[in-house]
């Protein structure tokens, strides 16, 4: 019964994704008909670029798992056919399809619930990537179009619907990501609804303020937003590299992941490695300063060439900055009262089967907890970074000192 209930939520998620895709297509067609070719090209770039990125991750994960399929549906296509599905941007839909099939067709399996959970967690990570590679930049684009048009016409009407769809997409991700992380917690550490509410609020508030600042800046200096993105991404990519992430199973995949982290950090923060608490503070300080600069440049442009629809640009800019500060306040409250800080050994997962030599325990590449076939190592890695504790932070510092001495 649990698997069937899970599948119902998965089915609703599929319908939500399909609804947003139809809104995206509708917006793209409307922009093309109104000869807004620049906006049409950007929207197409976000849609196709995000789809290609998600397909690459999906294919790499199949390869990392040695193509060990866990359901009958997965075993149907050959490796060549599976690769073609990803080339034609259908890999994610294949995952969605066999996730539902696993719940409905194979519930009699002893490990049906574990297999469904494994498949669903991969889908949620892919959804996480898609949120910040498609929905977030698309929402910024839609808001820029609305600010640029400043009137109600077929384009702005369609854009408003697409913006609502992007907002719903981001909101649905925020409601499921924290829940996915907390599935690794012991039963006594399970969260209450109020913690989920605080997690949802501070993330949505921070993302909204960031996207609003980007949209305001892009509406008056559209050419400079590309330079801003490239420069910011290079800085964030550098810090992602310095964080020494270990999410993927090969060096090429890890570089792709660090590239993606730089893109995600452009909109919002998430922890990618141990000992990220100080870097989180530095990140939010950097983004707050960046938002102040973007809003300041927008105010300057409004004062030199004031439009009819903005009467108090300074108040608008101050509100955007204040909303980000408010989001930081909610985040501090969440991490102070609601976020559990646990050692990674206390998270749910496979138990230790044999002791490892001391030198191996110091090695970053050797996991301390071997995972079962139905345990999702990718989601567990995210959970370990999400639920960092003071013990993990001290271990990270000791490990860094050991590496410096050895070098």
Automatic annotation (TrEMBL):
Keywords: Cell membrane, Membrane, Transmembrane, Transmembrane helix
Signal peptide: none
InterPro entries the record matches: XK-rel, XK-related_scramblase
Transmembrane segments: 36-62, 159-177, 197-217, 224-243, 255-273, 285-303, 315-338
One cellular-component annotation, GO: plasma membrane
Compartmental location: Cell membrane; Membrane
Transmembrane in keyword set: yes
Source organism, top-level taxon: Eukaryota
An example Gene Ontology biological process: apoptotic process involved in development
Membrane topology listed for this record: Multi-pass membrane protein
Family membership: Belongs to the XK family.
Name of the protein this chain belongs to: XK-related protein
